């Protein structure tokens, strides 16, 4: 549901040095330079991907349903059918308050 950890190789600057893709063990200087260039990265997250969608009418919601009338044994019954086609994701939204990234390795506490 919430944020998951970084899954891209070499993307997050706070990755532990004991990982399998450690550039110092491979001797790959380009990967090492790439890792060092991210040392000044901030541990805060300022944007996130929204879980909301736009439908054909421009309405914004998590899920969309359409009411259908089903006739069974001579009785009319209303059912809701979930719409999953023609939905456009809202995209990236800016957070009002920055959050700390889930992969930040330092324990933060108040003394």
From TrEMBL:
Cited InterPro entries: FUS1
Q: Where is this region: Disordered?
A: 1-29
Q: Mind telling me which GO cellular component terms the entry cites?
A: mitochondrion
**Ranges in a coiled coil:** none
Task: Name any Gene Ontology BP term.
Answer: inflammatory response
Name assigned to this protein = Tumor suppressor candidate 2
Q: Which organism is it from?
A: Osmerus mordax
């Amino acid at each position: 549901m919430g944020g998951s950890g970084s899954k891209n190789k070499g993307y997050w600057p706070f990755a532990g040095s004991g990982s399998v893709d450690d550039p110092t063990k491979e001797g790959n200087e380009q990967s090492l330079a790439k890792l060092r260039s991210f040392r000044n990265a901030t541990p805060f997250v300022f944007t996130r991907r929204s879980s909301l969608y736009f439908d054909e009418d421009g309405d914004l919601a998590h899920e969309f349903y359409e009411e259908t009338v089903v006739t069974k044994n001579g009785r009319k019954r209303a059912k809701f059918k979930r719409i999953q086609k023609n939905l456009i994701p809202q995209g990236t939204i800016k957070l009002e308050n920055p959050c700390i990234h889930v992969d930040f390795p330092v324990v933060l506490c108040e003394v």
